[in-house]
Automatic annotation (TrEMBL):
Name assigned to this protein: CTP synthase
Class of this enzyme: ligase
UniProt domain Glutamine amidotransferase: residue ranges: 315-546
Domain CTP synthase N-terminal: 2-270
Domain of life, source organism: Eukaryota
GO cellular component, one term: cytoophidium
Length: 596
């Protein structure tokens, strides 16, 4: 087994996840089987209880693991399926060691950070790195390890010590470290001193970076590269410049152009790895698709404007997988995505009274959008604004997609305005309401918050009589699909008949026919709600079907996309199914570069 460690210095948020994912993608293009592990040095056992406005979204895996959002990048870039064990936290490690100590596994010895915690980290990595993660079902050749946080933080020290020992355990030519550092520009001058200090700090901690990835807003001047190489005592070829790109999907191309594949091949002695000819051919095909999709050739497409009505919009990473799914679908539809952010509270009448400017600006964005998306979330705040958005979309024939809470919102709106249930609401918003059309799932633990929701990959069955369903057409007419879930509330079965008689069609249900999974309105260009989170399975070369249908409907291309899906020319097809010229996305009218 060969390991690539990606660490970071100077500041957090320099893009370790994208660099790690891009490195893994380049290794896959030459036919290697790649896995990935994310190390998070916080005490939480998992990311499930973390505030999305502070930490970003919680990414859910097929096995129900609630993990760091970077694992979503790994799955999207590498087209692999990871498990909860691929996300290591300080909480998990200490819990594991303490459980062993309670069982007497240490035979009465004093349990210490070194060697017991550090050995547990290494053992965990070595075990998980060998688990098959792709359709070959074979042991991976390389494992990418991303060390979260910043080298020098107290929380990271046990992991750094463990990585130092892992390099020795792995042996020569089996361990490579990429250290990511930020090069700021002050008064027009690129400053290399932070990177010099970062490399000094990481070396003093016992790690020896083989490559230095310099994050910067613009291309580094040759003098800056030479200064970093000189003072960090590396060859110029070991300094990789990772400047801001028009799209994060172009980062792998940037790394390839600087010879990263050859550096990896040389340092890890990849010539010694036996690679299947089939995987080499598959890797080349994938790379050809990727380059076609992310070509820098200027192509100008029509714009599709999507408004996201959410409650955590202060931090866009709260909806990272949603954004990526929209990007994947817009590229497939040959459209430039203009993503507008609307705070759900600003659509409510209380905001009109307190801040009319915010109210009318939010409604202007909503009313002029090509499509309206209401994603998942928790709590009552902003839900009346979401209901107003769903009502506007339904009445004005604007394409609507509701995810998890967004589906429940659509059901509440329809119950109130089309089924005579004026007081319809969710048990989450009012536990004493009379018409709780959304209820708490009876088997879920109300007292414990962590890992108690309905989580992971679960089946949805399209119902008899649903052949008209646009959603079903996008899934190529399949009778059963698998999607990932994360929710505590569901549509109340007591109201299903009344809602369906009123015109709301539950075209998809769970395998027992008890839980409503997909709701759709027939007499509408696109009005769909799904209880699951399809964004977790969206891939760059294979967009999520609900998102693809939504964006296609918003762009006036739904019939074409459905026809392709039914004919087997879906989103994961040949190169000619994808498009050139990804210029990033536009948020609230401003072009966004990949300053990740």
């Amino acid at each position: 087994m060969k390991y690539v460690l990606v660490s970071g210095g100077v500041i957090s948020g320099v893009g370790k996840g994208i660099i790690a994912s891009s490195t893994g993608l380049l290794l896959k293009t030459i036919g290697l089987k790649v896995s990935s592990i994310k190390v998070d040095p916080y005490l939480n056992v998992d990311a499930g209880t973390m505030n999305p406005k502070e930490h970003g979204e919680v990414f859910v895996l097929s096995d129900g693991g609630e993990v760091d959002l970077d694992l979503g990048n790994y799955e999207r870039y590498l087209n692999i399926t990871l498990t909860r064990e691929n996300n290591i936290t300080t909480g998990k490690i200490y819990q594991h060691v303490i459980e062993r100590e309670r069982r007497g596994d240490y035979l009465g010895k004093t349990v210490q950070v070194v060697p017991h915690i550090t050995d547990a980290i290494q053992d965990w990595i070595e075990k998980v790195a060998r688990i098959p993660v792709d359709d070959t079902m074979e042991e991976p050749d390389v494992c990418i390890i991303e060390l979260g946080g910043t080298v020098g933080d107290i929380e990271s020290m046990p992991f750094i010590e463990a990585m130092t020992s892992l390099r020795r355990r792995a042996g020569k030519n089996n361990f490579l470290q990429i250290h990511v550092s930020y090069v700021p520009v002050i008064n027009g001058e690129q400053k290399t001193k932070p990177t010099q200090q970062a490399i000094k700090a990481v070396r003093s901690a016992g790690l020896i970076p083989d490559l230095i990835a310099c994050r910067c807003e613009r291309n580094l001047e040759s003098s800056a590269v030479e200064k970093i190489a000189h003072f960090c005592q590396v060859d110029i070829e070991q300094v990789v410049v990772v400047r801001d790109m028009p799209s994060i999907y172009q980062v792998p191309l940037l790394l390839e152009q600087q010879g990263l594949i050859e550096s990896l091949r040389s340092i890890l002695n990849l010539q010694s790895v036996k690679i299947s000819p089939n995987l080499i051919a598959k890797g080349r095909h994938t790379w050809a698709q990727w380059k076609t999709l992310t070509s820098t050739e200027n192509k100008f497409f029509d714009t599709v404007t999507i408004v996201l009505v959410g409650k955590y919009i202060e931090l866009h990473d709260s909806y990272l997988s949603v954004i990526k799914s929209l990007e994947h679908s817009a590229m497939r539809c040959r459209r430039k995505l203009d993503l507008q952010w609307v705070d759900a509270e600003h659509l409510e009448t209380s905001t009109r009274d307190s801040d009319p400017a915010k109210f009318y600006k939010a409604w202007h964005s909503l009313c002029t959008a090509s499509g309206i998306l209401v994603p998942g979330g928790f709590g009552q705040r902003g839900t009346e604004g979401m209901i107003a958005a769903a009502k506007w979309a339904r009445e004005n024939k604007t394409p609507y997609l509701g995810i998890c809470l967004g589906m429940q919102i659509a059901v509440i709106e329809y119950a109130r305005n089309c089924c005579g249930l004026a007081a319809a609401t969710s048990e989450e918003f009012n536990g004493h309401a009379t018409d709780k059309v959304i209820m708490f799932m009876p088997e879920v633990d109300k007292q414990t918050m962590g890992a108690t929701m309905r989580l992971g990959l679960r089946p949805t069955l399209f119902q008899p009589g649903s052949k008209w369903s646009r959603m079903r057409a996008l899934y190529a007419g399949k009778a059963e699909i698998l999607e990932r879930h994360r929710h505590r509330y569901e549509v109340n079965p007591a109201y299903i008949d009344q809602l369906e008689k009123g015109g709301l069609s539950f075209v998809g249900k769970d395998d027992k026919g008890e839980r409503m999974e997909i709701v759709e309105i027939k007499d509408h260009p696109w009005f769909v709600g799904v209880q699951f989170h399809p964004e977790y399975l969206s891939r760059v070369l294979d967009p999520s079907r609900p998102y693809l249908g939504f964006v296609a409907a918003s762009a006036g291309l739904l019939e074409e996309i459905m026809r392709d899906a039914m004919n087997g020319n879906g989103s994961g097809g040949d190169v000619d199914c994808v498009v050139n010229g990804v210029d990033g996305i536009s948020i609230n009218g401003e072009s966004q570069t990949a300053s990740f």
